Structures are given as structure tokens and as C-alpha cells.
Amino acid sequence: MFDFGIATYVPEWLRGRAAIAAGHGDRLRALVGRTLVRAWLLWDVADDTWFADGPVLLDFGGEQVEIQHRKFDDLAVGWNSLAPRGSAHWPGFDLRWRHDAVPALASLQGRVLQDVELLEWRGDDAARGMVAIGFVFPHGRVTVFNALDENGLSFTAPGPSYERHPWAEHEESTA
User: How many domains does the chain have?
Assistant: First the structure.
């Protein structure tokens, strides 16, 4: 259901900061210092809107991270499995990959990644424990978060309901 008709895309759903850090921490950390070449989103052609149920692709020059949220706290992080060409399949939608549709995201292309943060939702609601991933650049940032069973994007610093775990602090706390 969540593979969008793409045979190479097999999301592995994780929950909680510890599971995400254990499964993907080293590769996320290795992105620091790399340049964001392209940021891809699935676009609903008919409505001319972002199809937020699809994965967000961030290509750091040969190392592409693929992020997708579902339910309240499921997060799939994949690597280099999607080629953002052509269409993706979802019943009733005409979907295409775009790298230029959201100006705030497109403005980060060409910038060097300064830090990656795991952001743990600490609000008093059903999403408590949900993990978002923040990508910090010298002059900007993007956070891919769970927007209630789909992805959301934020371009501002996380609010007080998030517990921030930048990689430098994460490494110290697990050492």
C-alpha cells in the first residue's frame, strides 16, 4: 500500500528515537558536511499540490535519504531506493516527482548540511514519542514531521513541545 507502485521502495516502519537512531543514526550523521543537491516531493498534478502521503527525498550528492510518516508515530527512513523520475501510483491521483514546487525547500538546494536532529514530540497527546527529523543548514532548516498520518514540512526552529537531539548531544548521551 505504501510502496507507490515502485518495486524498489519497501518502507521499514520504526517507532521511537532509540529505534530510529539505532537503525539510521550512522548514515544520518554521515550526511553532515554534504551538499543538498535536490529535495524531491510527490506532486498531485490535478490539484497542483504536494501529496504529503508520499516520501520526502533529500539527495545529498549520491546519498539519498527517503523519509515517510504514517499513523501517529510510524517513521520509515530509506536510502537510495527511489529514482524520482516519472510517476508514482496511488489510486485516484496523478503523481509526479518535483524538486522545485516548494520555494522554501528548493532554497536549501546547494547548501551544505550543518547538523541533523532527531526531534521527539513531548506533547500531551496521541502523538507523544513521534520522531521528526530536522536538517540544519547554516542559513535555513527543514524538518520532516508527522502531520497526522502524512508528512509535514517546517522551515522554522522546533517549538517547545519537541525534545531536540542534535547528533553531537546524541553521541554523548549514548557513549
Answer: 1
Please check whether residue 7 lies inside any domain of the structure: no
User: Quick check: is 40 in a domain?
Assistant: yes
- Grid cell for residue 142: 527543514
Say if 138 falls within a structural domain: yes
Alpha carbon 155 to chain centroid distance? Answer: 12
Q: How far is CA 38 from CA 107, 121, 168, in A?
A: 10, 27, 25
Residue type, 19: A
Q: Is residue 116 assigned to a domain?
A: yes
The domain in which residue 153 lies consists of 13-174
Q: Per the structure block, which three cell numbers stand in for 145?
A: 514531521
Distance, in Å, from the CA atom of 69 to the CA atom of 80, rounded to the nearest integer, reads 17
38-49 tens-digit pLDDT: 999 999 999 999
Higher-pLDDT residue of 4, 175? 4
Region of residue 77 (left: phi > 0; alpha: psi -120 to 50; beta: else): beta
How much is the pTM? 0.91
Cα separation, 97 vs 115, in Å, equals 26
Residue type, 49: T
